[in-house]
UniProtKB/TrEMBL annotation, chain A:
Domain Aldehyde dehydrogenase: 48-253, 257-435, 493-717
Organism of origin: Felis catus
Family according to the record: Belongs to the aldehyde dehydrogenase family.
Assembly behavior: Interacts with SPG21.
UniProt gene name: ALDH16A1
One Pfam family it belongs to: Aldedh
Protein name: Aldehyde dehydrogenase family 16 member A1
TrEMBL record, chain B:
Protein's name in the database: deoxyribose-phosphate aldolase
PANTHER family registered for this protein in UniProt: DEOXYRIBOSE-PHOSPHATE ALDOLASE
SUPFAM superfamilies: Aldolase (SSF51569)
Pathway assignment: Carbohydrate degradation; 2-deoxy-D-ribose 1-phosphate degradation; D-glyceraldehyde 3-phosphate and acetaldehyde from 2-deoxy-alpha-D-ribose 1-phosphate: step 2/2
Protein source organism: Felis catus
CDD domains: DeoC
Catalytic activity: 2-deoxy-D-ribose 5-phosphate = D-glyceraldehyde 3-phosphate + acetaldehyde
Domain of life: Eukaryota
Classification via InterPro entries: Aldolase_TIM, DeoC, DeoC/FbaB/LacD_aldolase
Keywords linked to the UniProt accession: Lyase, Schiff base
This protein's record includes keyword Lyase: yes
Keyword presence, rRNA-binding: no
Gene3D superfamilies documented for this protein: Aldolase class I
Length: 751, 333
């Protein structure tokens, strides 16, 4: 009977020439789940951990809703057990020679190769993604990641000298992640010698399978531990003793925004719609579909968005051969969305594309940069000059010219603005899990006493306090904003005492309005400074160094009044000048070229300025720390707002006098005043693109908390002094890394 | 009555199409074109992995692929005996019992055409007539494969092949004109080929392996279509690089653009290097994806191949019997 049916249908298909199902058998995925009796646990220290009395959450097939297995929700003690395992493993793992870690990563890559069918069917089964995508892209990339990082581990002693692994890394995955995103993070961590605890949302077995594959290599149980639990366990994971860093891993690719030039709008839309009509959707495990489904929640999200867009006046085009039931959602093209409508501002869900027209490339750049997101973008143009200009101008982590979605272990991927400031892959990815050798470990405890609402809110009042016995000529008075000294908005001053407790001088008491003015001035100066060639930046820094040396006596006497010995003061001035020169020289060697095997053409690793960088300088080394931080920031093209040493701001103000004549107005702004108050103003300023803070532990904690508002990258010292006179801490590569962000610019070539 | 109706219809359609095509050479259609090669390569890579057919679908698609084949022999040692054998194979491409097992034996399954050198056209016409078949005979012409002979002899070659009974002429274009950018001259040459063909179909071979860039491929495709080709064909099968997916994508996009501009559907023929059944499936899905189902007919899609047919027959054998065929299980062509 079945045979005749088959024959009849061959005859039918001969006429219709339709596509048929290409089911990928997922028997091996089910068999693997059976080995755990369909009851998964956590994978800790090289074995399954199945604690009793835990709530369990079902792991479901997102398309059929079938219950595949159950996963226990972790509790605090499970998290503690995993961190303990990782900490124990770290002691051994971090001490190994890089070559041994390289060997282990290579073996893991082989292990994935051997069990790839299990991996891809399991991943497609539980996520609903097209199996083709997982099989042809994710699995090979996972192996490449391991292999590339194995090479990095092998050469670690040589290429990463002066850096050491951080320790235990906590990784928190979002509910809709791909296992590949996890690989991007664990590979560099393991390669450099860290160990990892991964907190996966319950119902995602692929990370558990990976941990099992790693665990079954035997030699190093506990370097990769996976526990199931809600993201609310994150703070518990972060507060475990030994956890040095917690990273988050966002969702897989969402929807897209498309900007199309008006002159080719009709043609492009026509071609886009034609192509969309041929897309096929269906069960992820079908080998001939372009897109799977991502569960009912994703479907509802897309549906809500599309309905809302329609109600706001948008045109909606849907096409493609996609089942018309939830959770399947057809590829959707939304156009004519009014720019001010809420949907334009909202994040576009998968699988929706929102197209809008633009008139000129400049306008397109303004629109693209005008969003809080900054992950990746692609530029399609046949004019290389224009494409490159857009590629350089886009404020995102990755730009593909005439291509989209390419990734390679050697090319760093990351983002800026709200897309986060951490990097995966490439050299940048390695530094995420390293710290300069000798840096003490991070203590997990956060101060409970810190009141975020009141920290630095009030400014202590300053009254006249005795006769001014300042040097002659008197130190400059005012806030250095926009290239000149200005009176503070509060029209009040604070007194600076010398080492003997006498009043040395009054400096201006800066406040929120002054910070606002300084940031505005910096923003105005920033584009001009960025467009300066590195050589020009270098010569200005060198000129500043010369000015410093010319007025050596003024600086040394200012330092001496603060109790610095003459000899040390001389060294400090001399070193400060040297730092300015050194960073000036380094400004000329930025970024480099990567060659990716699969791509014909280069990938440029660009180092771009952060934008407006705020720096709260430490109290110690009032001139040297100021000059070191300033030089690194300027050399990388940033515009700066600085808060100088609180106890001794005079040398910094003296430098301002030189900068007023040498540097473009507004490039460097120096605001004196109450450090806590100014720190608060800077951290809460949404248009400050990065913040470095060298001060108290409490201040550090506040900066980290407050900067979450715009996810600006921060660098804090947690109350620990740095040896600014030492090369490693005062001028080491860490400053250079922090002072710029990376952009990967993919340039495929061919005619 | 029905047959005369058919003839009239054919005549009318043909004339009508001819009238439509006799347009001027509009260089603005090609002047701004720039093909994005990396993107084309990527699309080509994806499309091969994204569309698979299995089981009954595979069998049906393979049988359909048979109907697109221009069964070809283009060797120096062709004689009337192997041409005769080829014609017979064209008439009976798949073993009758296999077709019966699949219940398609009444579909009159043959290849689309037989393709030979001009000197063998007579043999092919005679053999097909003897076999009682109406399968058209295609002849290569115009100094195939290099095209480096005088225009006069190239035109005469077409006329002689048509005289001998070829109803489809596969001409090669003059690569020199493409590489030196003489698009109007290329247009004029193909116009003359068109005229020399008379009622015969004109298939224009672009020899894409020798055109230098994908942008040139697009431009040559457009010129060939503007000049009145019924088909554009990738290669002679004698170049070092033959029918590849990237080149095909560019040609198919040109066909689509031409259709959008004029409403005329031009056919596509990849040739050279298509040997396995699996390849043929990929080509079918490429046409389906890029141009749509309406192009999946022998009037608009051909595959130039010589050994492909026997591999398809082996796959059909396997589908029906569940066994792999021995060499002697299937008749040779």
């Amino acid at each position: 009977m079945a045979a005749t049916h088959a024959q009849r249908s061959t005859r039918e298909i001969f006429t219709t020439l339709e596509y048929g199902p290409v089911p990928e058998s997922h028997a091996c995925a089910l068999a693997w789940l059976d080995t755990q009796d369909r009851h998964l646990g956590h994978y800790v220290n090289g074995k399954w951990l199945k604690p009793e009395h835990r709530n369990s959450v079902p792991c479901r097939d997102p398309i059929t809703g079938e219950n595949l297995a159950s996963c226990p929700q972790a509790q605090a003690e499970d998290v503690a057990a995993a961190v303990e395992a990782a900490r124990t493993a770290w002691e051994n793992w971090s001490g190994l020679p890089g070559a041994s870690r390289a060997q282990y990563l290579t073996r893991l890559a082989k292990m994935i190769q051997k069990h790839q069918r299990l991996l891809w069917t399991l991943e497609s089964l539980v996520t609903g993604r097209a199996v083709r995508e997982v099989r042809d892209r994710d699995i090979p990339l996972a192996q490449q990641l391991l292999q590339w990082h194995a090479v990095q581990a092998y050469t670690q002693e040589e290429t990463l000298a002066g850096w050491e692994p951080m320790g235990v890394i906590g990784l928190i995955l979002s509910p809709t992640f791909s296992f590949l995103e996890m690989m991007w993070r664990i590979c560099p961590a393991l390669a450099v010698g860290c160990t990892v605890v991964v907190l996966v949302p319950p119902g995602s077995p692929t990370p558990l399978l990976l941990a099992q594959l790693a665990g079954e290599l035997g030699s190093f149980p506990g370097i990769l531990n996976v526990i199931n639990g809600p993201a609310s366990l994150g703070p518990i994971l972060a507060s475990q003793p030994g956890v040095q860093k917690v990273t988050f891993c966002g969702a897989v690719e969402g929807g897209l925004r498309l900007l199309i030039q008006e002159s080719v709008w009709d043609e492009t839309m026509r071609r886009l719609q034609e192509r969309m009509a041929r897309l096929r959707g269906g069960r992820g495990l079908d080998g001939a579909v372009d897109m799977g489904a991502r569960g009912a929640a994703a479907h509802d999200l897309a549906q809500r968005y599309v309905r809302e867009a329609q109600s706001q006046g948008a045109q909606v085009f849907q096409a493609g051969d996609v089942p018309s039931v939830s959770p399947f959602f057809p590829p959707t093209l939304v156009s004519d969305l009014p720019p001010a409508s809420p949907c334009t501002q909202a994040e576009v869900p998968w699988p929706v594309v929102v197209a809008s027209p633009f008139r000129t490339a400049k306008e397109a750049l303004a629109v693209a940069n005008g969003t809080p997101r900054g992950g990746s973008a692609s530029v399609w143009s046949e004019r290389l000059g224009q494409a490159l200009e857009l590629g350089y101008g886009l404020r995102v982590g990755t730009v593909w010219i005439n291509a989209h979605g390419l990734r390679h272990p050697e090319v760093p991927t990351g983002g800026c603005k709200e897309s986060g400031s951490s990097w995966h892959g490439g050299p940048d990815g390695l530094y995420e899990y390293l710290r300069p050798s000798g840096t003490p470990a991070r203590l997990p405890s956060l101060s409970e006493n810190l009141n975020y609402d009141t920290f630095g809110l009030a400014v202590p009042l300053t009254l006249p306090s005795g006769p001014e016995i300042g040097p002659s000529p008197a130190a400059p008075y005012g806030l250095f904003i926009g290239g000149r000294f200005q009176a503070p908005g509060a029209r009040s001053s604070r007194c600076i005492q010398d080492s003997k407790g006498n009043l040395q001088a009054y400096v201006a008491e800066g406040g929120a309005k002054d910070i606002r003015g300084a940031v505005e001035a910096a923003h105005q100066a920033a584009p001009g400074w960025v467009s300066q060639p590195p050589g020009a930046r270098a010569s200005l820094l060198w000129a500043l160094a010369s000015a410093l040396e010319r007025r050596e006596s003024a600086f040394t006497s200012a330092l001496e009044r603060h109790g610095v010995e003459l000899k040390t003061a001389k060294v400090e001035v001399e070193l400060s000048a040297r730092r300015l020169r050194a960073w000036g020289a380094r400004a000329q060697a930025q970024g480099h070229l990567l060659q990716v095997a699969e791509l014909r053409g280069p990938v440029l690793r660009l180092r771009e300025p952060l934008g407006v960088l705020a720096i709260v300088c430490p109290d110690e080394w009032p001139l040297l720390a100021f000059a070191s931080l300033l030089a690194a920031a300027l050399a990388h093209g940033n515009a700066v707002v600085l808060v100088p040493s609180g106890v001794c701001p005079i040398p910094a103000l003296e430098v301002c006098q030189d900068m007023a004549t040498l540097l473009p107005a507004g490039l460097v702004n120096v605001v004196t005043g109450d450090r806590d108050h100014l720190t608060r103003c800077l951290a809460l300023h949404q248009d400050v693109q990065a913040l470095w803070y060298f001060g108290s532990a409490q201040g550090s904690q506040f900066v980290e908390w407050a900067s979450a508002g715009n996810l600006k990258p921060v660098w804090v010292n947690r109350g620990r002094p740095r040896a600014w006179d030492q090369e490693a801490q005062g001028a080491g590569p860490e400053l250079g890394l922090r002072a710029a962000r990376t952009k990967a610019l993919w340039l495929p070539m061919g005619d | 009555m029905p047959s005369s109706f058919c003839v009239f219809k054919y005549f009318f359609e043909h004339r009508y199409r001819h009238y439509q095509r006799a347009g001027d050479c509009d260089l603005s259609w090609i002047s701004k074109i720039q093909v994005n090669q990396p993107a084309v390569l990527r699309r080509a890579e994806q499309i091969q992995a994204r569309r698979m057919v299995k089981k009954e679908w595979q069998a049906a698609w393979l049988l359909k692929a048979v109907t697109f084949i221009d069964l070809t022999t283009l060797s120096g040692d062709d004689t009337s005996s192997n041409v005769q054998r080829l014609c017979y194979k064209a008439k009976y491409p798949i073993r009758e019992d296999l077709l019966k097992a699949l219940n398609v034996h009444d579909k009159g399954l043959t290849t689309a055409a037989v393709c030979v050198y001009p000197a063998r056209v007579c043999d092919a016409v005679k053999a097909l007539k003897a076999a009682g078949s109406t399968i058209p005979v295609a002849s290569v012409a115009t100094g195939f494969p290099a095209g480096q002979t005088h225009l006069k002899t190239r035109l005469e070659e077409i006329r002689l092949a048509v005289e001998d009974g070829a109803t489809e002429i596969d001409v090669v274009i003059n690569r020199t004109l493409v590489l030196t950018g003489q698009w109007e001259a290329l247009y004029d040459e193909i116009r003359q080929f068109r005229k020399a063909c008379g009622e015969a179909h004109l298939k224009t071979i672009l020899a894409t392996g020798e055109l230098g860039s994908l942008t040139n491929v697009y431009k040559a495709s457009m010129i060939a279509m503007m000049a009145g080709s019924d088909f554009i064909k990738t290669s002679t099968g004698k170049e070092t690089v033959n029918a590849t997916f990237p080149v095909a994508i560019v040609m198919l996009r040109a066909i689509r653009d031409f259709f959008w501009k004029t409403g005329n559907k031009i056919g596509f023929k990849p040739a050279g290097g298509i040997r396995s059944a699996k390849d043929s499936l990929a080509w079918l899905s490429l046409i389906k994806e890029e141009l749509g189902d309406e192009w999946l007919t022998p009037e608009l899609f051909r595959i130039g191949a010589s050994t492909l047919l026997s591999d398809i027959e082996r796959q059909i054998y396997h589908h029906v019997t569940g066994r792999y065929a021995a060499y002697h299980d299937l008749p040779m062509s």
